[in-house]
Design goal:
Elements (H helix, E strand, L loop, with lengths): L7 E3 L11 E5 L2 E7 L6 E7 L4 E6 L1 H21 L18 E4 L2 E7 L4 E7 L10 E5 L1 H16 L17 E2 L8 E2 L2
Helix pairs in contact: 1-2
Amino acid sequence: MSPSTPGARRFYNWPRMENAEHDFGEALSVDAEAIGQPGQRTFRLLVKAASRTASIWMEKQQLAGIAIWLDEVLERLDREQPSDEPAVEPLPVGAIFDVEFRATQIGLGYSEEDGLFAIHAFDERMAGGAPAFRCLLTRGQSRTLSRKIAEVVAGGRPLCPLCDMPIDPAGHVCPRSNGHHQIGV
């Protein structure tokens, strides 16, 4: 996640932040999904811990930024500290969540000491800058999450090859063609 991505905080070796209101510790499962029709979708992370579940809603760019950052760090780790840890597929999560909110900012970190990734989610209702949520992921979970996020983000509307704007099902009047050429799906 680049520092210019809205709502981004990034930590390679995360600082010992204030405790999150909802600290899930090492997650049993983490997944990403989009709900709705392309162009009208909402995005979230689904996290399952030993006795709790969470649904963290966020913007598409925030979700995509998590995958980009995970890929960058995983690539560096694979080069510097190879691991044969297998990918870990997510477990099913029920429809009722113990924690559910919309994240205003996402913080990402990796602890060299523990070999775990951290996802911190900040909620605008939380005062004092402490994260509302935190979970830890293994390399295998992180690799699978990054792949899943890429699939979820790519499942939206196709992009116009000329202007990179989304093409709606009804078509798209491309500004690069001065509105003279309508591109369909």
